[in-house]
Amino acid sequence: xxxxxxxxxxxxxxxxxxxxxxxxxxxxxxxxxxxxxxxxxxxxxxxxxxxxxxxxxxxxxxxxxxxxxxxxxxxxxxxxxxxxxxxxxxxxxxxxxxxxxxxxxxxxxxxxxxxxxxxxxxxxxxxxxxxxxxxxxxxxxxxxxxxxxxxxxxxxxxxxxxxxxxxxxxxxxxxxxxxxxxxxxxxxxxxxxxxxxxxxxxxxxxxxxxxxxxxx
DNA sequence: CACATGATCGCCT
DNA sequence: GGCGATCATGTGG
Length: 216
Hints:
Blueprint: E1 25-26, H1 36-43, E2 47-52, E3 55-67, E4 96-101, E5 105-112, E6 119-127, H2 140-147, E7 164-168, E8 176-179, E9 196-199, E10 212-214
Antiparallel strand pairs: 1-7, 2-3, 2-7, 3-6, 3-9, 4-5, 5-6, 8-9, 8-10
The structure holds a DNA duplex (13 and 13 nucleotides).
């Protein structure tokens, strides 16, 4: 009997159930094949969605961080590291990279750039649909827990019609704040790079070292 | 093989 | 602000 190390059928929080019948528009591949900080910035306001047993669950991304690959001491691909765990980071933009941290939390990243580059955007926080607790997804580990995302999903293509997808919705552009990334104190000079982007008006942002704002 | 550590979180003082 | 949980992974011998 083979026993899977991780389950893929962990149910998302029921409070994240999405209305069917709304106009969801999937992000095109080209969205991901460009500068990683631009992708991180533009992922604010995008919906990260999961299908489970025929139903769609999801949340609106309000905080994300860019990881710039081989030249970024905070990135898992720093200095070209290429191990089984980080291999998904080298896939074409639009794939997912998930890793386990502190033995108990998962972190989800959206790969950027063409195949072979090794850059990605960490999804740090999101807001559920109306009625969901404001802090339910306020942190990368909580976001994955609420949507049932584990390393079993690492490497999947978000644009292949699978159970994990990214959707865009028409609406006002969020006001974006920028700061250094969180939790990368070990990364030398890279720890101060302004690569964290967040929705200035969201109560779900995991921390708020309010740096500078950009006009949406 | 041994061992140090982490892109976190919640609880403690 | 500090600390411990808990274990896959990376590195070094």
